[in-house]
């Protein structure tokens, strides 16, 4: 796909539908689901990496991470009935060979172990006792090798008691692959779950390592290369290359930062008469991230305040009826934002629909979404493929999950409720409305109507501060104005927003964020690779 943007500020991305066709190897930043990992495991032997070799490499990676994180101390390795347990036996052997005092406790029957796990258990020459809470007595470190990618249901009975004992123990915990009880695909926990201090996973991170609560349960995360052959991963490339913003920055067609201001587009922000600072924050962010020009519309009652508070952002008063005809007349105003400070008056609903009718790239945030809470269809049916919605969970639920009593929707048979984990809900909503959905949170998910979906993992807790959503909406709008396609603009903006916030540290105020964006952009380009004015490559 290559599109010469009206602002002229944009190169093209190889491949169809925005998918980077040039990528044939799985990016180191891509995520894999447990099912995809399992497929790679099954393909590995034919690609020259037998399971026993992968298990030895996995165990060695865990033992190495443990020795890097902790000094030698008594270790209790809790092994489960599958290959996660097999990894545990390898870890036990390697730590003992390094002189650590190691105790191995097996949850399940040794005779029931199969394949690589049975081989690894056979190579452990020390005693193996039945796993029970008492095994943890005296342990300075606990290794959780009970369940990994094979979690099938909520842990119950003795396993549940064991997990509770692990969490009650004073010793730190190193989890192998995923903390036992955590669903590596969704980040959810059907029941009891181990709280780890360190998690060592293999080959690629899984969505459950980034989505909450999973991310909070993993502790520090190490992703180890265990020598999975590219040939075993190659079939996963197209599907997997939708799962992480890093990847998109690898091949992003970055908007031009040189040339005439009109080459970098003109962002138009439709402000309201409430929370005047919200639309100002959005305008400042759009300007600092890359838009050549930014205009804010304001009701006449707020015009003087807004005009007095802004400098490089132009402020235009709207007529009393809030009509947008005049401010939309100039087609060079090529990226539109409505929502910050809009208010819930019915006029806002008409303004949203007027913006959407232009079919120009458009970001809908905050009140622009809430003003349709009682009639989501009116908004969903008016959206188009150049739109990005930026709901938080509450706004999302009002639009896409009207609750258990909602009448089934007519039409495409999409579920009336967006159900499932965060990835599934965001994807379903994007498919339903035909627009990009940025489902915000500490684990923001960005989903495109064609199924591409990424999880952002760099948002610091300080972003949970008033006004940061306005800044994000402005960031997306600024990148749209500069010519970036809507899905890439949403991914890049979310990533930069988190990067900027991380650079500001604690005590973050939303008004500090726009000023940090150029620094974040520079860090992104300088810290991550080369930037040739139209593309940014990550090393
Ligand atoms: N390339 C890689 O990532 C490698 C991963 N390895 C490790 O293999 C495990 C996955 O192993 P698997 O045998 O498929 O599953 P588990 O060991 O996680 O589970 C074992 C077994 O337990 C049963 N089970 C599931 N849920 C429950 C429950 N709630 N209660 C009771 N029993 C349950 C079920 O039958 C499972 O099959 C992966 O995590 C890595 O650690 C390879 O060692 C190296 C390559
Ligand atoms: K585990």
TrEMBL record:
Q: Enumerate the spans annotated as YjeF N-terminal domain.
A: 37-234
- EC assignment: 4.2.1.136, 5.1.99.6
Name the chemical reaction catalysed here: (6R)-NADPHX = (6S)-NADPHX; (6S)-NADPHX + ADP = AMP + phosphate + NADPH + H(+); (6R)-NADHX = (6S)-NADHX; (6S)-NADHX + ADP = AMP + phosphate + NADH + H(+)
Ordered alphabetically, the record's keywords are: ATP-binding, Isomerase, Lyase, Metal-binding, Multifunctional enzyme, NAD, NADP, Nucleotide-binding, Potassium
- Keyword NADP assigned to the entry: answer is yes
List required co-factors: Mg(2+); K(+)
Cofactor binding comment, as recorded:
Binds 1 potassium ion per subunit.
- Disordered: region residues: 1-25
- Cite the binding residues for (6S)-NADPHX: 83-87, 148-154, 177, 278, 341, 392, 470
The record ties this protein, via InterPro entries, to: Carbohydrate_kinase_pred_CS, CARKD, Nnr, Ribokinase-like, YjeF_N_dom, YjeF_N_dom_sf
Highest taxon, organism lineage? Bacteria
Q: Is ATP-binding one of the keywords?
A: yes
Q: Where does K(+) bind?
A: 84, 144, 180
Chain residues that bind AMP:
440-444, 469
- The YjeF C-terminal domain covers 244-524
Spell out the family assignment given in the record's similarity comment. Answer: Belongs to the NnrE/AIBP family. Belongs to the NnrD/CARKD family.
Q: What is the name listed in the Swiss-Prot or TrEMBL entry for this protein? A: Bifunctional NAD(P)H-hydrate repair enzyme
Q: Which species is the source of this protein?
A: Castellaniella hirudinis
